[in-house]
Amino acid sequence: LSPRPLAGRRLLITAGPTFEAIDPVRGITNLSSGKMGFAIARAAREAGAEVTLVAGPVHLDTPRGVRRIDVRSALQMLEAVMPLADEHDVFVATAAVADWRPASLSAHKIKKDGKKIAPTFELSENPDILAAVSARSRERGAPYCVGFAAESEQLERHAREKLLRKRVPLIIGNLGPATFGRDDNSLLLVDAQGATPLPVDGQATDKLTLARLLMADLADRLASRPLS
Ligand code: C5P
Fold this sequence. Notes:
alpha/beta; eight-stranded mixed beta sheet; two-stranded antiparallel sheet; 5 helices; 14 strands; about 25% strand; globular; binds cytidine-5'-monophosphate; metal-binding; magnesium; EC 4.1.1.36
């Protein structure tokens, strides 16, 4: 077994939440810690890949040897990812991208008006970064796209729905309860053939161990694709 099964591959990974500004001091975000994406970046590098990590606002150190690009919003993440997608063989979308952003950004801090009337905000839908890269991949034959699914119920059904909607070859479901911010998890790999737990015994394990198992599995999936 090669200790560097991803040598010669270039991986582009998104991680963390996005932050959608309302005004200069407030915004909409979520509880993603970025730990899974950072663990995947580290494991991919250890496995010999060249790794670019596009990270939303997180408090994590950059894994050694990984090129990191920091962004804040979904639009910035899309802008960073799209030109990079063509230079990479694999795209792993672990980021918990905010589904919506405030339709307009207030230049100044929104103040209470003294009449006890709370403001309302119109929202716009954010672009689906994974679906955009997948569409590009269908034109070029690369990158190989991997998505994630964090669901509270009916994981396999929802994961398969994402596989079809985003037209990607692999969706990874988080089986562990309340995985956001936690260190232990187990995964369900859903592809056109079926669903496989990782680790095979389904036991929750730390995210770095999972990421290493996942990179070994990914290397097998890529075996039929020539190095570019
Ligand atoms: O769209 P949904 O949240 O159901 O799918 C999750 C998967 O899609 C994750 O891989 C996530 O990183 C990716 N995604 C994305 N851009 C979005 C929403 C989700 O890349 N706007």
